[in-house]
Every structure is written in structure tokens, then in C-alpha cells.
Amino acid sequence: VHATIEWLDKPRPHIRLIDQTALPSRELYLEIFTVDELVDAIKRLVVRGAPALGVAGGFGVLLALSQGNRESWPADRLETEIAKVRHCRPTAANLAWGVDRANSVAGLGYEAVRAEAFAIFHEDDAKNRELSRLGADWIQEKISSSSVRVITHCNTGALAATGWGTAYGIIRELHERQSLGLVYVDETRPLLQGSRLTSWELTQDGIDHVIQVDGAAASTILGGLVDVAIIGADRITANGDTGNKIGSLPLALACARASIPFIVAAPFSTVDLRMETGDEIAIEERGADEVSSYWAEGTTVPGVKVFNPAFDVTPNDLISAIVTEFGVFEPSISRPLARISELVDDR
Ligand code: MRU
Q: DSSP 3-state assignment of 184?
């Protein structure tokens, strides 16, 4: 069984990552000893997916502390290096959240940071299992079929988290309840997280699925082939607007037209209550080469201009339910994030 991300103390403190850029053809692991190596791995999507980035952020602070000790960094250098990790991908709320959470106990020393980073790591699985149960309950309440057909986008499985997954976790939960029909997996251009990663995980879990090109999603939905769309999230703002992998919004639009539920699943660490609406979400723009020549020897006219936003924002009125470990919120009927704020205040 693969491990998405691990902290190892020996022979020297480091992070071990499964290289998600090499899957599914090769299962390689990278050993990360320095902040620069971690930043490079995050930028290249060796490790990716919002919850996994939260864990990478926590372990990143620990890595900076241990490298700083080794190389006798002054305090301001340490701060700069930690900030590099915090800012190396802008859209997923979890990265900065993980960095800030681990860093908040830095004054108490290395062991305290280590404990906090490990808490982030261990809590992830439990949160995702809980939200998966809640999401599956919600779906089974709304959809009476004993073989619920699902469409999903990008990768939200164990690779994007630590062991279970978010949107993928709900799919897994339905499968365990023997209530899952066929899963339609968007290949997820341009980096193919759906066809390379989600399909790899579904195959290992023995879950029946088909891969389709992203452009097929709308007609799959309007053609009545699926009962529900389930996606993950990189950042959910106070009003319920949701930033997720580019190509999520078209799914939501098609689901609204077909009157089927569109569900967003994420741990609460993805919710950013400091942002009111999705207009404030920074959309990462990635390199032209991902579109023009990443997977083959050139798929465009050489030098053509490329627009490559990595995420889009789905407005709250297109979202039927936001599933977190604290409960399921229905943006259209219940001012969801006001209620989430109350729960957070209660924590
Ligand atoms: O660019 P990526 O692969 O990091 O994008 C990932 C996504 O958009 C996921 O859907 C999101 O992070 C949720 S992961 C549980």
C-alpha cells in the first residue's frame, strides 16, 4: 500500500512522497531533505490535493526547523523559508493552514512543532472518513437507487489526502455500502489527475469506472447517465463559493440543468472564512507547457499563446451540498457558512 506523504526521522529528518507525476506507470518515492526540494515538489505536483498540501505544510515547517538547525539559520532566514512553503501554491487553503498551524507552536520548540504536524497528518484520515459517512448518508437520503451513478473530477482520493479521500471517500463509502453504480471519471486536463490518479485508485479499490474526456461530462450528465456529481475543493469561501480544479464549474452548470445534485466534499480546513466570496480566491495560473507539450512532443503550434488557469470557482447557488466533517450544508437553503462559523466558534 502506498503512502502519499510520510515524515521520517532517520537517517536524517525528511519527508517521503510518492511521486504523483510518475503514476500510474511508475510507483516512485522521493526523499525530501530541504525546503527548496519541498517547494519544487509542491510546485510540480509531486504532492498535490488540498488535504495532502495541508500535511505537506505542517511537515514543511518541521523540515525548515530541522534544516535550520543543521545549517544554523538565523530567525529571519527560518521565517523566509517557512513563507516559501506557505506561498508556493496559492489556491488550496490547506497549504497555508497547515503551515500556520504547525508554525503557531514554533515558540515551544521542535518537539511541539513535530507533534502539531503529526496531529494534522493523523486527523486528516478521521475527518475524511467522517465527511464520507455524512456525504453518503445525504446522497442515500436524496437518491433512492441502490446503485448510485457518480461523476467526479480531478483526484480527491488517498493520494490527495493521507489515506481515505474526500469526494473519493464518499464514493468509497457508497461502494462499501454496496450502493455504488458506475463511476464516470473526468480525465482532467491538462495534467490528467482523473485518468492517471483517480482511475489508479479506483482500480486498486476494485471500483467499476470509466474515464471520459472532460468535454464529455455535460452530455453524460444531461444524457441521464449519472445521479450525482461529487467533487473536492481547494478553497470554500464564507458564502459557499468553491474553488476547485478547472473543469468543476462546467459540471455544476450541467448538473443544475439536469436537476441532479452537485456535491462539494472537503475537510473544514479548506473553508476560508476570511474570504467572503469566490471572487477573492487566487486562481493559480500554470505554465503554457502543460497545455502545449506536456504529454507529447508538442500538441500545439510551437509558441502558441496558452491560457492555463488551474482552478475555477463554482458559485454557491450551483452547489447542492457542502459536506464537511462537521455536517452537510446546503447553500441554496440555509446560508451555509454562517452555520459553519457557529460550529467553529463552538470548537
Ligand atoms: O492541482 P491539483 O491536482 O492540486 O488540484 C487538486 C484539486 O483540485 C482537488 O480536487 C482538490 O485539491 C481537492 S483534493 C481532496
A: strand
